[in-house]
Amino acid sequence: MTRSGGVGPDSGGRAFSVIVAGGGTAGHIEPAMAVADALRRLDPTIRITALGTERGLETTLVPERGYRLELIPPVPLPRKPTADLLRLPGRVRAAVARSRAVIDAVEADVIIGFGGYVALPAYLAAGRGLRGRRSVPVVVHEANVKAGIANKVGARRAARVLAAVANSGVRAPGRADAEIVGIPVRESIATMDRAGLREQAREHFGLPADGPVLLVFGGSQGARTLNEAVSAAAPQLLAAGISVLHAHGPKNTLQIAEPAPGDAAKYVAVPYVSRMDLAYAAADAAVCRSGAMTVAEVSAVGLPAFYVPLPHGNGEQELNARPIVAKGGGTIVADAELTAKYVMDEVIPLLTDPVRLSRMSVAAAGAGHRDAADAVARIVVEVAGR
Q1: Which of 202, 311, 330, 336 could pair with 305 in a Cys bridge, judged by C-beta atoms 3.0 to 4.6 Å apart?
Q2: CB proximity list for 121: less than 8 A, separation 6 or greater
Q3: Which of 18, 46, 44 is nearest to 32 (CA)?
Q4: How far is Cα of residue 239 from the mean position of the Cα atoms in its chain?
Q5: Which range has the top average pLDDT, 36-40, 143-147, 369-373?
Q6: 42 CB contacts (<8 Å, ≥6 apart)?
Q7: CB 172 within 8 A of CB 161
Q8: How wide is the angle at C-alpha 139 spanned by C-alphas 120 and 90, nearest 5°?
């Protein structure tokens, strides 16, 4: 080892090399980048290579975080019998071959996959290939409550299988379930002192220093139900002394009534928030969707939340929020039930009850996993024999 707590080079002087495979959506990329950051904290000499496709958000997010990105052909899995299904075997072969070429080029010691289109070719390429190529150990992390196809395939030969919650449907051979570690989140989220950042955060967004603040966001594109319900209740929120930080999505606009002359609270509407750490620090509660990463971050910082699952799909978003709600850290609201009246009847009373807010904050933080990224990084190092 080169330093206390580091992993250092191998006996031949070669730096430890890790491939992270989790492209496509932020839900796959953010945990991958959080683990990459945690590995770098263990030892700055570790070489991190991210796999991605030209279609995914990783083409922007990975370089922004300072990591090397290698592109492979995308392999979307058709959900219906179409002509794309006939082309699937050829696409898989091309993606696996490209993944194997990257593995060999960077001399990968271990692959950590987070599911999605990018992970499946990486899992398949990690096995011993033609001409006696060495196999590479795999660690699989499943963030969702229902495992996807890619991680189910990867788990069959993985050295370790990790998950955010129990009974996700993915496990290592010989185990009854995956190892539960939570979802890796960014260090700025995992180590946040909300109270300590509060003044800076509110100044950043132009919010009042005093009084409760409600954070509203529906993902990177916003959410119409959240936008309409909360903005319609703006007069009542402001009259109750509650300020609002509302990220409505870059393609959407809000119609906000002018505040009454005596209102000290402010309604700050923005298309997008690039500093979510400051948004969390400025807020006392949130109204948001319940994607896996959203739930992980909101609970990690101890923010009480009204979770509004997407009304379509397989019900996964509601399942994501249930563990936090069961601990008392949030409330699940059906999309059709989130109205201006609900905001007035349920959201305003919570924001104006400091004792209840504090109790829910403690419960939310207790249900989160702040140390997930560091835990996964240590497992990756262990699997690689470092």
Answers
A1: 330
A2: 51, 72, 75, 92, 95, 96, 98, 99
A3: 18
A4: 34
A5: 36-40
A6: 5, 6, 7, 377, 378, 381
A7: yes
A8: 15
Confidence of residue 22 (pLDDT cuts 50, 70, 90): confident
What is d(CA 290, CA 321) in angstroms, rounded to the nearest whole number? 6
Considering only the C-alpha atoms of the chain, give the largest distance between any 2 of them, rounded to a whole number of Å: 77
* Structure tokens belonging to residue 298: 């909101």
Residue 86's contacts (CB-CB under 8 Å, 6 or more residues apart) are none
The answer for 174, left when phi > 0, alpha when psi is -120 to 50, beta otherwise, is left
Let me know the angle formed at the C-alpha of 190 by 2 and 353, rounded to the nearest 5 degrees: 160
Q: Distance between CA atoms of 301 and 194, rounded to whole angstroms?
A: 7
Please name the residue that has the structure tokens 């080029």. Answer: 105
How far apart CA 128 and CA 135 sit, in angstroms, is: 4
Using DSSP's 3-state secondary structure scheme, residue 244 falls into strand
Task: Quote the CA–CA distance of 149 and 22 in Å, as a whole number.
Answer: 14
What's the pTM? Answer: 0.85
pLDDT classification of 33: cutoffs 50, 70, 90: very high
> Which DSSP category does 134 fall into?
P
The secondary structure element, H or E, covering residue 154 is helix 149-155
Task: Give all strands (DSSP E) within the chain, no chain letters.
Answer: 17-21, 47-52, 68-71, 110-113, 138-142, 160-163, 179-180, 213-217, 243-247, 267-270, 285-288, 305-307, 330-332
Residue 215, helix vs strand vs coil? strand
pLDDT 10s digits, 335-354: 999 999 999 999 999 999 99
User: CB under 8 Å to 24, separation ≥6 — which residues?
Assistant: 52, 53, 55, 56, 57, 58, 116, 117, 118
Q: Is 216 in a helix, a strand, or coil?
A: strand
